[in-house]
Amino acid sequence: NLDKVAPAGAILVAAWPRIEGASGMQKMADIMADLRSNPPAVIAGQICGFPMGAILISKTNAPSEKKSLALALGSVPSLAFFMAISKNGFSLWLVSVITLYIFALAFPSCEKNSSPLSYPTESFAKILSASVSSAVQVSGTIIFFASVTALIPAPLSPLIKEFLISILEIGCAASFCKTPLILAFALSFSGLSVMAQLYYLSGGVSLKKYLLSRLFLFPVLYSAIEFEKISFFIILFLLFVLMFLISAKKPLQNLSV
Question: What mean pLDDT is predicted for residues 218-222?
Answer without folding.
Answer: 94
